[in-house]
Design brief:
This protein is an alpha/beta fold. Helices cover 36% and strands 19% of the residues. It contains ten helices and eight strands. The chain has an eight-stranded mixed beta sheet, with helices on both faces. It starts with a helix and ends with a helix. It binds S-adenosylmethionine. S-adenosylmethionine (SAM) is lined by residues 53-55, 76-78, 81, 103-105, 122-125, 199-202.
Amino acid sequence: MGKNKLAKFAYMEEYPHVFQYPYAVLQDKGFDMKGKWNELFFGNNNPIVLELGCGKGEYTVGLAKLFPEKNFIGLDIKGARMWTGARQSLDEGLSNVAFLRTHIELLTYFFRQGEVSEIWITFPDPQMNKVNKRMTSTRFMKLYCQILSDDGIIHLKTDSNFMFTYTCAMVKENDLPVLFETDDLYHSEPADDILGIQTFYEQQWLARGLNIKYIKFECPDKDNWTEPEIEIEKDDYRSFGRSNSLNQSGK
Ligand SMILES: C[S@@+](CC[C@H](N)C(=O)[O-])C[C@H]1O[C@@H](n2cnc3c(N)ncnc32)[C@H](O)[C@@H]1O
């Protein structure tokens, strides 16, 4: 492991707004802030917004600056990436930001029902061959429902036509109310302050000339979820793109 990465891990251990809970730690110690993020950490009653797979945390930090009246938590399993956002939010004195290093699959260990009002999913791997790993699959939707408030909202921003088409189909199949949707964010209408925030991965895909897609939908608590039965053409650039050029520089 590089020296730089080790230094970042060491800093992360010290940061007061970073919580690191891999499964082993969770099993051992549990998480005593579940249901009490606002009471014990943020010290207010503001809505909590989660960014899942936040990478360097551009949305977590960017939204926190735009909306001081909300609380933001960036979640990812990769600590060295997350360090960038953790450092920036500390340097900028943002008191409405936290980072949680863990697996998305463990969300219900950290948040009680209704504790989260919005979820952002930014440029996830579309997992074209594994529906259960796809972050907008019904498997994950069931999980999100367990922590979202009744009027909870999910935002997906993606370069992937496959991911976007799949998510729109999942939303339709399950009658989820769509609040906004575009398959070409930057060429349809000017992106606003929120949608104009660009993540590390987004910048890479934009540089390749790909269109960015976005959908915002409600996620009410439901008993029954149905996977859409739909054939979707796979993104042709993934096989040579994501794993090589992005991962080398993305760390
Ligand atoms: C393609 S990157 C996108 C990062 C960032 N959102 C961006 O747009 O630059 C996907 C991120 O999701 C994280 N991730 C993927 N699956 C995860 C999981 N099951 N639990 C936690 N993080 C996960 C990865 O570590 C990675 O940082």
